UniProtKB/TrEMBL annotation:
Sequence ranges assigned to domain HTH iclR-type in this UniProt record: 24-84
InterPro entries: GAF-like_dom_sf, HTH_MetabolicPath_Reg, Tscrpt_reg_IclR_C, Tscrpt_reg_IclR_N, WH-like_DNA-bd_sf, WH_DNA-bd_sf
Keyword DNA-binding: yes
Coiled coil: none
Protein name: IclR family transcriptional regulator
Protein keywords: DNA-binding, Transcription, Transcription regulation
Domain IclR-ED stretches: 85-269
Length: 272
């Protein structure tokens, strides 16, 4: 088992002396507590308090809070060890880093095929974060580069991911469907109908729902979990509306679906 060598965390620098209850200091303390488990499999409150130089009561509260969140788990002896959620986060980080590397060749080929901007998006909260973007060198008008994170309900990438994730749909609806353009879908019933259609056809479109004049088409990138394909990211084409939702739409849909399927297959091989 590899033991991580982590630098000590300066709690005073993170939160400031005399700010024991500040949110920033609480986060810093939580990170420091987790760091303690890098070289010891199980720890109790007394040991954590001694190592960090904090009160035992503070260590008890932090350990209990981390256990409630699944980052730690309590053993039969009353001590704590790293929880499964941390391993899940670690696997997720590895998957996403691997995802970008695996997707780049297919994104480049799709960009050359369509001469449009190609995006690789993942869900962060109720938004879509574009972790990679390949812009066509011959584009006369480019999608504004600052759009690296969009609300999931107003993007095609968000729709293909939400279509297979009821929990994400609930979170999106609870946040509310904000209107960004006259074309943004803000009616929950209509939104659910669109997701149902997305599941049936295997791709999603968004017509000028976040920025006027710009539309997108997306297809899911999947990994097999529990014997079934599960969307983990989305590949999308974004361009002026007339260029992808006009006569070229069938070719764009075919291109993005084939590219997403290729990335899915390559990702499965990379994990095996």
């Amino acid at each position: 088992m590899t033991v991580l060598s982590l630098p000590p965390l300066d709690l005073d620098a993170a939160g400031g002396v005399g700010e024991e209850d500040s949110p920033l200091r609480s986060v810093a303390t939580a990170v420091a507590v987790l760091d303690c488990f890098a070289d010891e499999a199980e720890l109790g409150a007394t040991r954590v308090a001694t190592r960090l130089g904090i009160a035992k009561s503070t260590a008890c509260r932090m350990l209990a809070a981390l256990a409630t969140g699944g980052l730690l788990e309590r053993t039969g002896s009353g001590r704590y060890r790293l929880g499964l959620r941390l391993f899940e986060y670690g696997q997720l980080a590895v998957d996403r880093l691997m995802l970008r590397d695996v997707a780049l060749p297919a994104m480049g080929e799709l960009r050359e095929l369509l001469r449009e901007t190609i995006q690789l998006g993942v869900v962060v909260g109720t938004d879509v974060l574009y972790v990679e973007r390949a812009e066509a060198a011959t584009m006369n008008v480019r999608f504004r580069s600052e759009h690296r994170r969009n609300p999931a309900h107003s993007s095609s990438a968000g729709r293909v991911l939400a279509a297979a994730d009821p929990a994400l749909v609930t979170a999106i609806l609870e946040r509310g469907l904000q209107r960004y353009t006259p074309f943004t879908v803000v009616d929950p019933l209509r939104y659910r109908q669109i997701l149902a259609s997305t599941r049936e056809q295997g791709y999603a479109t968004a017509r000028e729902e976040f920025e006027p004049g710009w539309s997108s088409i997306a297809a899911p990138i999947t990994l097999t979990r529990g014997g079934r394909p599960h969307p983990v990211a989305a590949l999308s084409v974004v361009a002026p509306t007339s260029r992808i939702l006009g006569p070229r739409k069938p070719a764009v849909v075919q291109g993005v679906r084939r590219a997403a399927a290729r990335v899915s297959a390559d990702l499965e091989r990379a994990r095996s």
